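Training component of the fellowship. As part of building independent skills, the fellow (R.M.) carried out the full modelling exercise for a liganded target. The chosen ligand was FE2/S2 (inorganic) cluster. The inputs are recorded below so that the supervisory panel can assess the work.
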Amino acid sequence: MSDTGYVPPFPKGWYVVADADEVPGPDLVAFNAFGRDLVLGRDADGAVRATQDLCPHVGGLFSQGGRITDGCIVCPFHGWTYGPDGRCVAIPTGEPIPDRARVRMWAVREREGRIEVFHCRRGQAPDPDAEVHDRR
Ligand code: FES
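Fellow's submitted model of the complex:
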């Protein structure tokens, strides 16, 4: 399902998205969880980042060659770069950065060799004690 489409009412909680070794480095890897197309990759420090698989510029898919560089998501098509909070921080052509140029970032944790992403339709902060869903 596209990130812009209807999202079914998946319950709040941590969703097991992948085994840790499925996200080995900075290259963004596509996964689907709670009705969303996501990409995951690792920072230089090994922390996993998760965002939507859709660049707001003209709709390129991050999963088609995107990477994490210096803690930022870099789109493979025209190089728009999104910081850790999801806001666009750089456009290689030097154009002004539109206010609305941002991607959604999800909270991620890694436990027992699994990568879990926190989902809440109401946008609540991650709850470490929320239910864990493994629907892979
Ligand atoms: S589609 Fe991502 S930078 Fe153009």
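The panel noted the following from the submitted structure. Residues 22-111 form a domain with the Rieske Iron-sulfur Protein fold (CATH 2.102.10.10). Residues 21 and 136 are 15 Å apart (CA to CA).
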